[in-house]
Amino acid sequence: MGKFLLPYKFKYWGAFMFPLGFVGWYAGQMSNVIPWLSFLNWGVPLTPIFLGICFFSCLLGLLFLIFSKEKIEDEYVQKLRLESFQLAALVQIGYLVYSFIKLVIITKYVIDEKEYFVFMFLKVLLAFWLVYIIRFNFILLRNKLKVSNEK
Amino acid sequence: MKNKVRELRTKNNITQTELANELAVSRQTIFAIETAMYVPSTVLALKIARKFKIKVEDIFELEKKD
Predict the structure, then answer these.
(1) How far is Cα B38 from Cα B34, in angstroms, rounded to an integer?
(2) Domain ranges for chain B
(3) Would you state the pLDDT for residue A112?
(4) Strand, coil or helix: what is B60?
(5) Quick one: pLDDT at residue B11?
(6) Beta-carbon separation of A76 and B26 below 8 A
(7) Residues 6+ apart with CB under 8 A from A131
(8) Using a CB-CB distance cutoff of 8 angstroms, which residues of chain B are in contact with residue A146?
(9) What ipTM was assigned to the predicted interfaces of this complex?
(10) CATH number for the B2-55 domain, one of 1.10.260.40, 3.40.980.10, 3.40.630.10, 3.20.20.10?
(11) Is the CB of A77 less than 8 angstroms away from the CB of B16?
(12) Do B25 and A71 touch (CB under 8 A)?
């Protein structure tokens, strides 16, 4: 599994790019709604570029966070990684099924389908990555705290 | 699976960090093995046995549920 992973330093890039990209993208989206964020609306051509950069920075940051090695990437870390991927895949399938049920039963196709599908698949993709990051880092952090209490 | 890693480590007066460095694993891995949260691979089990100069069977022991 280790041969598909990026070097450890990419984790820092991910930790920097993901929150910054997300905040930028969200602020850019809200700039039309919230008056004090209107400074982000430089003009018609600039805003989509800004939003695009922020969005891909956010996605790339997430990718770096997931696919970068730990400082010591040993067999235990790889086992945790595999388990986290399994859990994330399960949650993703569950979320996908829920989204389809919501689309068919609750909204009954009243909404704009194309836009909904794009947004839904984006949410499903993000759910996978976020569940993986949260689970993997939670177990690592919990073990680190336990280890620090040991001799 | 039960193991005697902690017992052997304290008997030989080795810290978790020292053992982890010698086996090229993280301290968390040693902790996980000692608390039976994780069963090491054959390679790591052999490395541990070699470190304490005893047989693998003398460190790791199967339980009824295994």
Answers:
(1) 8
(2) 2-55
(3) 66
(4) strand
(5) 92
(6) yes
(7) A84, A87, A88, A91, A92
(8) 31
(9) 0.86
(10) 1.10.260.40
(11) no
(12) no
Encoding tokens for residue B31?
A: 């902790």
Cβ-Cβ contacts under 8 Å, A71 against chain B = 26
Confidence of residue A42 (pLDDT cuts 50, 70, 90): low
Are the beta carbons of A74 and B29 separated by less than 8 Å?
yes
pTM (predicted TM-score): 0.80
* Interface check A148 vs B, CB under 8 A: no
Higher pLDDT, B37 or A36: B37
Chain A residues 10-69 within an 8 A CB cutoff of chain B: none
- pLDDT of A148 higher than 80: no
- Crossing angle (nearest 10°) for helices A113-148 and B27-34: 80
Phi/psi of residue B4, nearest 5 degrees: -115, 25
Give the residue from A11, A2, A132 showing the smallest Cα distance to A76.
Answer: A2
